[in-house]
Amino acid sequence: MILFDVIYLGAIVFAVLCVRRLMAWRSAKAALGPRHLMRLATVTVLAAGYGLVLITVVAAVLVANHRQETGDFRGFQTLLMGLGAYVIGVPIANWLGMRLVGVRPAGLAAFGAWTLLGVALLLVQPLIPGGAVQPGWFYGLVALVPYAVAAAAVAAVPAPPAR
Question: Mapping DSSP to helix (H, G, I), strand (E, B) and coil, where does residue 102 land?
Fold first, then answer.
């Protein structure tokens, strides 16, 4: 139950940080130009595509491993691999991917994509009949919205000019 609380708390922290950034930026009376809106749309689409590919690949590996396991500890190796991927692999890949896509600050976008992905998976899993393990592409499709929302929320506030 603690993991669920951490995921939900992380999503709340991400939302608060994005709102605070937006309020600070709006208090400076800055205006959005068409270039920024175009960049926002581009970054959102690229981040969603990146999330789709990343999570499809990670989920495909985990699902394949889950289907091959046998023995007394069936499911334990997949559980450890899944936790390792979610706690270590996905956050690092998120940060690198968000930097490549052009979202700044990439760390905040990676944190948001990570927590929102966790929330989305927690919301979708009970809706699956019998809670069965789905193919990797299913989890990739679930990742589209969290990655797009995280990138859009962070990219909505223009990065400060480089010095």
Answer: coil
132-148 pLDDT tens trace: 889 999 999 999 999 99
Contacts of 136 (CB under 8 A, 6+ apart): 56, 57, 58, 59, 60, 61, 62, 63
Query: Residue 129: pLDDT band by 50, 70, 90 thresholds?
Result: confident
Check whether the bond before 158 is cis (ω within 30° of 0).
no
Q: How far apart are CA 113 and CA 94, in angstroms?
A: 7
Cβ neighbors of 92 (< 8 A, separation 6 or more) are none
Q: Cα–chain-centroid distance for residue 151?
A: 9
Pull the structure tokens for residue 90. 């996905």
109-to-6, 84, 100 alpha-carbon distances in Å: 17, 20, 12
Least confident of 64-68, 124-128, 150-154: 64-68
Q: Mention every residue, 6+ apart, whose C-beta is less than 8 A from residue 58.
A: 85, 89, 90, 136, 139
Identify the sign of the CA torsion 144, 103, 111, 54.
positive
Q: Which of 60, 58, 109, 65 is nearest to 87 (CA)?
A: 58
Grouping H, G, I as helix, E, B as strand and the rest as coil, residue 89 is helix
